[in-house]
Design a protein that fits this description.
- This protein folds into 2 domains: 122 residues, Response regulator (Rossmann fold), CATH 3.40.50.2300; 69 residues, Winged helix-like DNA-binding domain superfamily/Winged helix DNA-binding domain (Arc Repressor Mutant, subunit A), CATH 1.10.10.
- Helices cover 47% and strands 14% of the residues.
- It has 10 helices and 8 strands.
- The chain has a 6-stranded parallel beta sheet, sandwiched between helices.
- Strand 1, helix 1 and strand 2 form a beta-alpha-beta unit.
- Helix 3 runs parallel beside helix 4, helix 7 packs across helix 9 and helix 7 crosses helix 10.
- It is globular, with a radius of gyration of 18 Å.
- It starts with 17 loop residues before the first strand and ends in an 8-residue tail after the last helix.
């Protein structure tokens, strides 16, 4: 167990620029972890349940903990003060698909150092994590009824071409399932799954299953309320 006297002033090349990722989409944490590695961070762990967040933070005491808002077993907003209690030096970034300014205010009041909508994109997320690691408080508060960005509208237009089976296949890609697991879930052959997957890539205009999964999470394509 160790404590930090103060957050690092920069991240690149520093051994203590470590992060714990908490999001219920394994493919998203895998992709984000790879990107953070290129920006001088070390990802100590990734968890996919709200109930596991406090334990992993207590075990690793990272410089930054990125927490998704919505988990299948709880609300990430409720986890923020628990993380701060178990590791006061850890700076929390709450990541959410919500566009409610009140959520940002509640997150900061709970002790978060950063707040960002997933739709802001990966570059904005990397920037937020880097700035928070350097000691800043970063809250990109959205307008409550801001019009959707053109790329978000286009993403949903493309997703509209997916068949129900292709949407099921995309959802399982987001969950990190491979061909065999998807085939078992859908009760079809591996060849059929590959056909569905290729259709998803073609219709969304992406080149890999990882890119398709990240695209779906970023634009909330599987969220019926989006």
């Amino acid at each position: 167990m160790h404590d930090r006297a103060a957050p690092a002033t920069s991240t690149a090349g520093q051994a203590d620029a470590d992060v714990v990722l908490c999001d219920d989409h394994p493919v998203f944490t895998d992709a984000l972890g790879a990107l953070l590695g290129g920006h001088g961070f070390v990802v100590r762990a990734a968890v996919h349940r709200a109930g596991d967040v406090v334990g992993v933070v207590a075990a690793h005491r990272p410089l930054v903990c990125v927490v998704d808002r919505h988990f299948t077993d709880g609300d990430g907003l409720d986890v923020v003060p628990q993380v701060r209690a178990v590791s006061p030096a850890t700076r929390v970034v709450l990541l959410t698909a919500d566009r409610d300014p009140d959520t940002a205010r509640r997150a900061l009041a709970a002790g978060a150092s950063g707040y960002l909508c997933k739709t802001a994109g990966v570059s904005a997320l990397i920037s937020t994590i880097t700035r928070v690691a350097g000691g800043e408080v970063v809250a990109a508060v959205p307008a409550p009824r801001a019009p959707r960005a053109p790329e978000h509208v286009e993403a949903h237009r493309l997703a509209g071409y997916l068949t129900p089976r292709e949407r099921d296949c995309l959802a399982m890609m987001v969950d990190g399932l491979g061909t065999a697991a998807i085939a078992a879930r859908l009760g079809v052959s591996a060849t059929t799954v590959r056909t569905y997957a290729q259709a998803v890539l073609t219709k969304l205009g992406v080149h890999s299953r990882l890119e398709a999964a990240s695209f779906a999470v970023r634009h909330s394509l599987l969220d019926t309320s989006a």
